[in-house]
Design goal:
5-stranded mixed β-sheet; 51 strands; 962 residues; single chain; globular
Amino acid sequence: MANFRNVAWNPSVVALAIGLCAASPALAQEATAPGAGEDEIVITGFRKSLSDSLAQKREETGVVDTILAEDVGKFPDSNLAESMQRIPGVALARGDGGEGKTIAVRGLGAQFTRVRVNGMQGSSGTNSSDIRAGFNTSRSFDFSVFASELFSQLTVRKTYSADIDEGSLGATVDLQTPRPLAYAEDFTFAASAQGTYDDLRGKVSPRVTGLISKKFLDGTFGVAASIAYTKRHTREEAWSAVEMYRGTQQGGFCSPVGYATQNPGNNATIGTDALNCATGLPRLPGTTANVATYEAARNAFIYRSPRWLRSEQDYSRLGATVTLEAEPAEGTKFALDALYSRYDVTRTDYSFAANSFARGTNNHGQPITSVLEIAVNPQGSIDYGRFNGVDISNDTARREYTTTFRQINATFSQELGKLTIDGFVGLSLSTMHNPVSTQISFFANDVNNFSYDFRGGGSVPVINWGFDTTNANNYLFAPNVAGGGVTIFRNLLNKGDNKEDTENLTTEFNATYALFDGLKVRTGVQYRESNYEKYTRSRAGNLTTGALPTGTALNSVMMLIDGFGSSMPGDVGGSWLAPDYDAIDRLINFTNDDSGAYALAAIPISDQLREAVTGAYGMVEFDTDALPVRLRGNIGVRYVHTRQSGRGTVAGATSVLTREYDDWLPSATLTADITDKLILRLAAAKVMARPELNHILPAGVNIALNTRTISGPNFYLEPIRAKTVDASLEYYFGNRGLISVGAFYKDIDSYIQSIGESMPFSQTGLPLSLIAGSGYTPDQEFTVNSRQNTPGGPLKGIEVNLQTGFDFLGDAFRNFGMLANYTFVDSEIVYCKSTSTPCTGDGTIVRDLINLSKHTVGGTLYYEDDKFSIRGSATYRDKYLLTVPTSRIDRTTGVNDVQGAKSTVFVDAVLSYQVTPQISVRLEGQNLTNEAIEYYYDSVRQDPYYTSFTGRKFTAGVAFKF
């Protein structure tokens, strides 16, 4: 690797609106009485941020939205992604603890959105808990890595011009750190301190920020520095079942005595015969009722692994910026920016799961389980089931990872008469290291009378585990039992370590020449290089078992998980004893990665990918008042040459591959100022987005033995390419007023799809040595995830945006205002059903684009005077798809076609008071309605297989500015 360094009124929303209106008379009178006779009104804070953002938007040529800091070191929201929800077409994806992590723009997810930090592509890799099973890496950007106070401006560009870097289908997001010469005063200092209370975790977390800026040499040179530190303690609780499949998927259930086809077949080693499912588990009598229940269960859909989940996350986030800015002479500008961020996370996930339904005969699974009772709903899913012979796993998983981001870049520009030249050079490094990824499992096997029950309604079932979950004597942490082709799991101790580095280098040079007034020619060249490197390792020999010293009492190595489900509706929770990570480590020292029974394998040869992009563009910019209306815009073309080369290794076999491709990307934008208040914008472009770097390694495989999943790259993935058309009509009024309607169409020529398929390990083509020592056999079923290009399809939509103050209602309402936006997006994407059949005709299904919500709505009501400010915001996001197709799809009938997320409404509020010109206090509430995140399985049945709650967050703080 190169070492170059469905919208419904929500009660809380209505209550918030009523509260704001009820407060209006007193607040408005207090604010307006002193200045009732004055003509000029000076606005500050949130209103000024909105007003300045509109002024910038008005002067842009394309469809661009900007969010500005309300004051020095004071971004409107504590999370960058959450701020962007106010922009039409932007939908937020929340991560661990409910914090905003990534965005989708016009239905296109994080992988289609290019984020630039101070003009340079940013990447920030993170991991995620088992509670939601996901991570961001290589090109994708996780906004939770950065504190919002580090930035002064955020810009979302939805249309394209030739001078903007390629790589985005959804939008290009620019983050800008503070510039010292932009401040009005020679010296500026600001600091703040906050405490955030998480009502689910019951802890207070600190947050401190500081910014200092100083101008020198008569304001021609300036230095600015900022720092932000956050420590957070969060908790998330969920019900989850991973997926759904038919009762026959894992070999069916244990048949009643005398059933025509005995299941499972005789196996003396585990005690299976005509009268027993296994040793100590007698078959049910062959009554008419038992036979009918058995047959109904075989044909119905059952949850794979019903479980409770609690995730506790403790993280610290440190960020710092330094900027040197100079304007030594008229027309000469220079800036040097440095940015550092470190995001340290320690997360512990506790899960309590019924695992028999996820295992076949060779793991003493579902075929050993008897069905006592079931209730099947009209869609064919088991809403209620009671079972004998169920294996329960009791897991504690610890993950520790650090994401470090470093960037330094320099920009300059020089005016030379009609010629202006500018340049940029920057280097960034993002490292995500996950040295601790450990799972410890205790078991309670062959449990009778386990049940789950949805019959009471809702998306969280009532679970009866069938035994006392708080009695340590009911659990096992003992050697696994193997024989007769069957492995009975009685303990698990799985460890791993992985690391990813992404280095980005960017250099560019541009020149603009004014041919005459209103007509310019702009051209430029650019070179970008990305170097991506990763490794993954697990315990030596693929071992996944552990042992406690003889005579150890289990209650000495278990801890109580109490009050689970307190945030969930209804009586659905409980308590259990979980493996105590630290207590077990004190006994057996399993955290020793270098030697002993729990040592990790040696760090392997890293998989690497180098991507070099050479680009050049030419464009014409025009701006004329010669016609009846002012016309401005640009037309141009960008050429990019991409060269990718890399190395990957699987089971000691290394592959080295290289490829190259070219793209010509024309674009045009026309903006007509029809009147001084009405603007029409039209734009068209050809765009492309490259695959994630980790998805195009030449080789490499990641095997998660604890979840039996296999994933691998595809070096020959083509970029996603599309043709786009945009139209927007905007009407501006007053200082804060805007009504706009926009339409967009994207013809996606090629798409990249992830396909998950279930198959025995022996059919994957991978060496059996990769699972040797794990306890799994070649016949064990694994889920194999791969990626391939598909035909794509059209995407189209509309955006409506309203922003206004309430001045038109009279002086009593001049300090009030609102923001509202609505977006509709529709798509028809062709997905392949399998990698083994042609992606045509019956081998495809057509569904919406993944992460696309057809409807999104956002609204903010606010009041602000020179002392007091309050605002409440609500955002609605319609349901969207997570996976198409699922690994359990019936490729003939299309059943089990998708996994999706249900609609959500999140409500937040902020209140602040300016105590003195220098000191202000602030209160903030997030997720005031304790909204749940819910996932479903199958587009027709929509079985609720995951529901999580993150609780409410309340923040109080004080800020000082000098």
